[in-house]
Specification:
The protein is of the alpha+beta class and 146 residues long. The chain has helices at 2-14, 32-44, 56-64, 85-94, 128-145; strands at residues 17-19, 23-28, 49-54, 77-83, 104-111, 114-123. A hairpin with a 2-residue loop joins strand 5 (104-111) and strand 6 (114-123).
Length: 146
């Protein structure tokens, strides 16, 4: 009975957030522009600074023909990079090799043929950085996906 209950809970929650060893993805029914605006507000309302917004879907569409690619990968896609001086310092003091995780980045995107869902995704920090940074990334993504 416990196994059945555990499987049921797992099945119900797996559609809300999917994770691999190094990425976490959440799907929301909110429009892309609304998620982007909510993500920006969730970051800035915590006193964090957005360093850069990468317009990845535009770049792929613009450069695809130069390399012979015809497949549309995203409907819309942006990666928002931001920083927390305090958390970055803690993370890098714990392990200087964590520098590769700076700045933090959360991607938002839609897939071709599915205009009803927007995805929110981020790299899952490993090792000592996980306990320092992952709660922040998850909280921001959760807020943006509501």
């Amino acid at each position: 009975m416990r196994r059945l209950l555990a499987l049921l809970v797992l099945a119900l929650t797996s559609s809300l957030a999917q994770a691999t060893d190094w990425t976490v993805r959440q799907r929301t029914a909110q429009p892309f522009a609304d998620v982007r605006d909510a993500l920006t507000l969730a970051i800035e309302n915590r006193g964090l600074v957005i360093n850069y917004t990468s317009h990845i879907a535009d770049m792929l569409a613009r450069t695809g023909s130069d390399i012979g690619a015809r497949k549309q990968v995203f409907g819309q896609a942006e990666i928002i990079e931001f920083c927390s001086a305090k958390l970055s310092r803690q993370m890098i003091e714990a392990d200087p090799h964590n520098i590769v995780l700076c700045p933090f980045a959360i991607a938002i995107y839609t897939l071709p043929g599915d205009d009803k869902h927007t995805w929110i995704s981020w790299r899952r920090p490993q090792g000592s950085a996980a306990t320092i940074v992952e709660p922040l990334l998850r909280d921001i993504a959760d807020e943006a996906g509501r």
